[in-house]
Specification:
Blueprint lengths: L4 E6 L5 H14 L5 E4 L5 H11 L8 H25 L4 E4 L2 H7 L8 H11 L6 E6 L2 H6 L14 H17 L4 E5 L4 H15 L2
Parallel strand pairs: 1-3, 1-4, 2-3, 4-5
Helix pairs in contact: 1-8, 2-3, 3-5, 4-5, 4-7
């Protein structure tokens, strides 16, 4: 795995963004120049679509429309950011990728997983080399939020986040070769150590 594509997944508030930055610092210490990115977003076109997806009321889009928008954003992200970086020999670290769509739109909100997988196969055709799922009790994650968020998905409540957590843990069982579950209830420093230990094993 000379130029790995690494993703972080988990419920909102699990600490993914913190761990993305921590891992990026680790790679920089190894004289690597990682591309740090996110979804939805990560490229100019995908960021435009992100603004459509995260703003507004919860019922703004149907699940099917969300799947199409996320796939369009991901395609642009893949073409303009991820693939060029990997071809240039850069490690890519992304805060979310296709697994989030599998869970948020394909499992937690509707039985549309087959649609998600079919579109992914047709339009994306790429999985991460390694995925960290930061697992945390949704009640704890919600308690960490100091102010209300404008993000539609973060405001869908505790029951929705519980369904998302269940979906991510099921995904880890479905893809055991690339998914590693990390305890997000530990301190950020302990989580970062757990992540770096896995990196040491998988990316020597």
């Amino acid at each position: 795995m000379s130029t790995p594509f690494i993703t972080f997944e988990g419920i909102d508030g699990a600490g993914k963004s913190t761990q993305v930055q921590s891992l990026a610092r680790l790679f920089r210490k190894m004289n690597r120049d990682p591309l740090v990115t996110r979804e939805p977003g990560g490229s100019a076109g995908a960021e435009d679509i992100r603004r459509l997806l995260v703003a507004g009321d919860q019922g703004r889009w149907s699940v099917e429309t969300e799947i199409l928008l996320f796939t369009a954003a991901r395609r642009d992200h893949l073409e303009r950011s991820i693939q060029p970086a990997l071809k240039a020999g850069r490690t890519v670290i992304s805060d979310r990728f296709a697994d989030s769509t599998r869970v948020y739109q394909g499992a937690a909100r509707a039985s549309t997983r087959r649609v998600v997988d079919r579109l992914h196969s047709l339009m994306i055709g790429r999985e991460p080399d390694l995925t960290f799922i930061i697992d945390l009790d949704p009640a704890i994650a919600l308690s960490r939020r100091r102010v209300p968020r404008a993000d539609r998905f973060e405001n869908m409540g505790l029951d929705f986040q519980k369904a998302v957590r269940t979906g991510f843990l099921a995904l880890a069982e479905e893809f055991p070769d690339r998914c590693v579950v990390v305890n997000g209830d530990d301190s950020p420093e302990k989580v970062a150590t757990d992540v770096s230990d896995v990196i040491g094993e998988r990316c020597p």
